[in-house]
Design goal:
The protein is α/β, with parallel strands linked by helices and 225 residues long. It folds into two domains: 2-119, Rossmann fold (3-Layer(aba) Sandwich), CATH 3.40.50; 127-221, Arc Repressor Mutant, subunit A (Orthogonal Bundle). Helices cover 40% and strands 21% of the residues. It has helices at 10-22, 33-42, 59-68, 84-92, 105-119, 153-164, 172-178, 190-202; strands at 2-6, 26-30, 47-51, 75-79, 97-100, 127-130, 133-136, 141-144, 147-149, 211-214, 218-221. It starts with a strand and ends with a strand.
Length: 225
Amino acid sequence: MRVLVVEDDLEAQRYLVKGLKEAGHVVDEAGEGETGLTLALSRPYDVAIVDRMLPKLDGLRLVGKMREERNNTPVLFLSALSDVDDRIKGLRAGGDDYLTKPYAFAELLARLDALVRRRDPGSVKTRVSVGDLELDLLSRTAKRNGSAIELQPREFRLLEYLMRHAGQIVTRTMLLENVWEYHFDPQTNVIDVHISRLRAKIDKGFEAPLLHTVRGAGYMIRAHA
């Protein structure tokens, strides 16, 4: 899903954005309320995470202005303000949920999924499969033909990206930008190494390989005929 994060604490913002991207989401971020509002009104988002205490435009006013503009993007308030009155103010301002700091990241992900499901049931995919290979996006686990496959976080992101583009050629540039978040080619063999490790884990011991190298173009994952 596409997520907007509006958080002025740089360390907290980096932690949140990193975790969301590792969970496979596309993230835009803003460090103050006015920029956050501009992004919210100019781009489509599945959900927004908004801090209460923001410079230039606080979170309550930001969300209020979103609602005035008939922007119905689900909003999760994320704040250190934890009193009942604070939570009520957040919900009455137009927020859809309220999570207090410190928080468990797994709970935050679950709340985001719940908000998106509430808005559009069936829009959140929790499983991706290609042939007999299956990823559970909630538990971050993989199985092939019912047998568990142990994957490192980067391997999981790589496999998820390939499976979401099953049957399509995925280029080196696509992988660098979407899995490694490089916007340049570092001229290393990092992709080749990870592809090799991934192929050993998902294809070794199975009659038909799923992960293929397309010479001169990139990689493709597809179910065998």
